[in-house]
Amino acid sequence: MNYELDMSRIPQHIAIIMDGNGRWAMERGKERTYGHQAGVEAVKRITSECTRLGVKYLTLYTFSTENWNRPADEISALMGLVLTSLEDEIFMKNNVRFRVIGDMKRLPEAVQKKLWETMEHTAENDAMTMVVALSYSSRWEITDAVREIVWDSCRKMVNEGYDIDELMKTITEQTVSEHLNTFFMPDPDLLIRTGGELRISNYLLWQIAYTELYFCDTYWPDFDEAELHKAIQSFQNRQRRFGKTEAQVENESEE
């Protein structure tokens, strides 16, 4: 099925919870890791299509901090898949810059090394930025940001003579945003979750305050260009009000 898209209203930042790899594999009588391998092919498809459509940021929830509780053999297979899937083709062919958010210190050294190498190698690419959330959870991210803000505040009090009232005035929503892992990109316009589950799973909780949410039953390995277009069309059929009334938004669009 074809979906007619308004190319002037393509979301600039799409975030995806890539769910359903394991269930997709098990329904085919395969190990869960087989589904993760198939999921890499979906990443390639969607990355290429997002680049073609003019999406500027694509953020993929790949491995959460809670996923460290999974069986050791599955974690090992996932880490190995990270190493083998960071191919130059997906980035250089599409002129895509690669970034990572998450607690990278918990990752195996070989994985950390490969991630840094890929980020450095693709740093000059500018068609789109693909951001992979690895060893990431939003509560971890916000907690880490609070620690940094407290540290900065203590430094200001000791070194710059701030009193507590002055200090409190310097801490704003912007302060928090600037200390998050995602400081380098805008908040998502559209969040897609595949696999039929209807929850956010500790993903970008601060950043999705006004993000449009889209849930579908399709498992991630089966998520293709047509499914992406369907999600974007749903986004384009909505009116984003950011707390304003419908009439206010319509008046602003006419000005």
Tell me which oligomeric state these chains represent. Answer: single chain
Proportion of strand residues: 5-15%
Helix content: 40-55%
* Major sheet summary line: 6 strands, parallel
Strand order of the largest sheet: 3-4-2-1-5-6
- Please tally the helical runs, counting DSSP H or I stretches of 4 or more residues: 10
Shape: globular
Averaged pLDDT, please? 92
Give me the secondary-structure category. alpha/beta
- Pattern of helices and strands: EHHEHHEHEHHHEEHH
In total, how many beta strands? Answer: 6
Uncertain stretches of 5 or more adjacent residues: none
Distance between the termini: 36 Å
How is this structure best described in words?
- The chain contains 10 helices and 6 strands; from the N terminus they run βααβααβαβαααββαα.
- The protein has helices spanning 21-26, 32-53, 72-85, 88-92, 109-121, 138-159, 164-170, 173-178, 225-236, 246-254; strands spanning 13-17, 57-64, 96-101, 128-136, 190-193, 212-215.
- The radius of gyration is 20 Å and the shape is globular.
- By secondary structure, the chain is an alpha/beta fold.
- Helix 5 links the parallel strand 3 (96-101) and strand 4.
- The chain has a 6-stranded parallel sheet, with helices on both faces.
- Helix 2 (32-53) runs parallel beside helix 3 and helix 3 (72-85) packs parallel to helix 5 (109-121).
- The two termini are 36 Å apart.
- The model has no long low-confidence stretch (mean pLDDT 92).
